[in-house]
Amino acid sequence: MISKSYRDLLADKLGEEIAKKLPRSFDIIGEIALIKIPDELMIHSREIGEAIMKIHKNVRSVYARRDVSGVYRISETIHIAGEEKSDTIYTENSIKFYVDIKRMYVNPRLSTERARVTELVSDGDKVLDLFAGYGAYALNIAKRKNVYVVASDLNIYAVEAMKKSIKLNKLIGIVEPIVGEAIHVINALREKTFDVIIADNPTKIDFFIKYISKPLKRDGRLILYVLADDIGSMRRVLAENELLVEDCIIVREYSAKKNIFRCIANLR
Predict the structure, then answer these.
(1) Which residues, in sequence order, are CB contacts of 126 under 8 Å at separation 6+?
(2) pLDDT, tens digit (0-9, with 9 covering 90-100), for 239-268
(3) Half-sphere exposure of 240 (CA within 13 A, CB side)
(4) How far apart are CA 160 and CA 252, in angstroms?
(5) pLDDT tens by residue, 94-125
(6) pLDDT below 70 — which residues of the chain?
(7) 236 three-state secondary structure
(8) Interior CA angle at 73 toward 186 and 105, to 5°?
(9) Contact at 8 Å (CB) between 225 and 198?
(10) Do 85 and 54 touch, CB atoms closer than 8 A?
(11) Which three-class secondary structure state does DSSP give residue 177?
(12) How far apart are CA 20 and CA 76, in angstroms?
């Protein structure tokens, strides 16, 4: 027997034409569902939320997600069904994370990418995770590797969430959460150097790229995310900043013409 989807329920209630315009997938983060609803269908948002909750019994709150904006890269959210509760605990790669979808950027679809990056880090490495948010990369790495991670972010709520998540998990490595803007953190570290630096801020990386490699050891690796039209243009940007590209892959599509690349680079 084929199980029904939330769109099947809505087709019965609102008609197939409306149901077809809705996304086939959405994010479930702990007990919260996040869905992107076309503007013209927001009039049916309550029915959409209730249909999701009927199919997914573990979901207790449903929010409509808008575009990511602002310095904290947070999605605007609109409560449409269930409890009006924006914080939850969700599990990714056997790690428990405390998050608040209204106060920090949460993207569970990158769980596989974070697992891949973990494999690029070795036991004993010193890691600097700039733009760490609620600690998604930092905890993924420290869960499986004996490392020391400095994880910084400007969003105080995200850093507080990271501290709670550290207490929820048994980590092999150590994570030191820091509140601060990336350049200030780099300046404050001064003489400290790192084997691995992670910079996941693709839309603003052009501004920060000249600074983020400063604490990198001569034989260290910079793992950064770049928004670019193609690999060629992205490689040119890195070369202009004295970085030699070791490897680059497309992580996800950003728009019709741009992709987000994950690049591993070394100092020239």
Answers:
(1) 147, 148, 150, 192, 193, 194, 195, 196
(2) 887 888 888 889 988 888 888 999 999 987
(3) 10
(4) 28
(5) 999 999 999 999 999 999 999 999 999 999 99
(6) 1-2, 69-72
(7) helix
(8) 100
(9) no
(10) no
(11) strand
(12) 24
Contact assessment for residue 250 and residue 225, using Cβ atoms and an 8 Å cutoff: no
Q: Which residues, in sequence order, are bridge partners of residue 226?
A: 261
Taking the C-alpha atoms of residue 224 and residue 138, their distance in angstroms, rounded to an integer, is: 14
Q: Which phi and psi (to 5°) does residue 64 adopt?
A: -85, 135
Other CB atoms within 10 A of residue 260 CB? 21
One-letter amino acid at 247 equals: D
Please classify residue 231 by burial: count the beta carbons closer than 10 Å to its beta carbon, then call 0-12 exposed, 13-18 middle and 19+ buried: middle
Of residues 30, 26, 32, 29, the one with CA closest to residue 6: 26
- Residue that is written with structure tokens 């809505």 in the block: 10
> Tell me, what DSSP letter sits at residue 163?
H
Both tokens assigned to 29: 């983060």
Contact residues for 32 (Cβ-Cβ < 8 A; gap 6+): 59, 60, 61, 62, 63, 85, 86, 88, 101
Q: Which residue has the tokens 């990158």?
A: 110
| Residue pointed to by tokens 């693709």 | 202
DSSP-derived 3-state class of residue 228: strand
| Terminal CA-CA length for the chain | 59
Angle at 130 between CA 123 and CA 162, to 5 degrees: 80
Q: Residue 229: count other Cβ atoms within 10 Å of its Cβ.
A: 11
